[in-house]
TrEMBL record:
<dbReference type="InterPro" id="IPR036514">
    <property type="entry name" value="SGNH_hydro_sf"/>
</dbReference>
<protein>
    <recommendedName>
        <fullName>SGNH hydrolase-type esterase domain-containing protein</fullName>
    </recommendedName>
</protein>
<dbReference type="Pfam" id="PF13472">
    <property type="entry name" value="Lipase_GDSL_2"/>
</dbReference>
<feature type="domain" description="SGNH hydrolase-type esterase">
    <location>
        <begin position="2"/>
        <end position="169"/>
    </location>
</feature>
<dbReference type="InterPro" id="IPR051532">
    <property type="entry name" value="Ester_Hydrolysis_Enzymes"/>
</dbReference>
<dbReference type="InterPro" id="IPR013830">
    <property type="entry name" value="SGNH_hydro"/>
</dbReference>
C-alpha cells in the first residue's frame, strides 16, 4: 500500500495507473492499493482537506493488513514547522503499527525532480529524523539526479510533476530500494 500526494496518485496527464506507485507495484509483482490526494502531506490537507493520517484512516485502515506500507511525501508540507511535520509523521507510523503490527513501513521523502528549495531539504531532514526515531527505513529521492537530459523527458511543463517516463524512472529507483 502507498499513502502519498499527487506524485503518488497521479496528476495532469499521468493517471493513477501510470504513477511511480503503480509502476513500482508492477515491477515488484505487487497489487498496490494507493491512497492520498494531490496537495496533501503529513500536515497539509490540500484541496481535499485530508492529511496522510486521514487518508490512512479512511482509505486504508479498513482493508486487510498489507505486507508493506510506503509513506511518501513531504513536498506539500513546506509551510509548516519541520518539528510539527516530523511529529505528524511519527504519529502516523505509530498508528499504522498499532493497527497493523506486522506491516513493514517504509518512508520516502519529498520528491523533487529538479531545483528543490532550501525548505524542502529541511522537511526531508525532519522526516528522516522521524523515520530514524521510529526505526523505519527512510528513502531519499532528493539525493537522486532525475533530470539527466532534457527536463521535459521527466518533468511536466509545470516544472514540478513527473511525466510518465519520470514516474517510470522513480519506480525503477524505488523498486530497487524496496527489494
Amino acid at each position: 500500500m502507498f499513502v502519498g500526494d499527487s506524485f503518488t496518485v497521479g496528476s495532469g496527464p499521468v493517471p493513477a495507473w501510470r504513477t511511480y506507485a503503480s509502476e513500482t507495484g508492477r515491477l515488484l509483482g505487487w497489487q498496490p492499493v494507493i491512497a492520498g490526494a494531490g496537495g496533501t502531506g503529513y500536515l497539509n490537507g490540500g484541496r481535499v482537506g485530508r492529511t496522510f493520517q486521514r487518508s490512512f484512516e479512511v482509505e486504508l485502515a479498513w482493508r486487510p493488513q498489507p505486507d508493506v506500507l510506503v509513506l511518501s511525501g513531504g513536498h506539500n508540507d513546506q509551510r509548516w514547522s519541520t518539528v510539527r511535520v516530523g511529529r505528524a509523521a511519527e504519529r502516523l507510523v505509530e498508528d499504522v503499527r498499532a493497527h497493523w503490527p506486522g506491516t513493514r513501513i517504509v518512508m520516502v521523502g519529498p520528491i523533487w525532480l529538479d531545483g528543490a528549495p532550501a525548505k524542502a531539504y529541511r522537511v526531508r531532514d525532519a522526516l528522516a529524523r522521524a523515520a530514524g526515531r521510529e526505526g523505519v527505513p527512510f528513502l531519499d529521492p532528493m539525493r537522486e539526479r532525475w533530470v539527466t537530459g532534457r527536463p521535459s523527458d521527466v518533468m511536466l511543463p509545470d516544472g514540478v510533476h513527473p511525466t510518465a517516463a519520470g514516474h517510470e524512472r522513480i519506480a525503477a529507483w524505488l523498486a530497487s530500494e524496496l527489494v
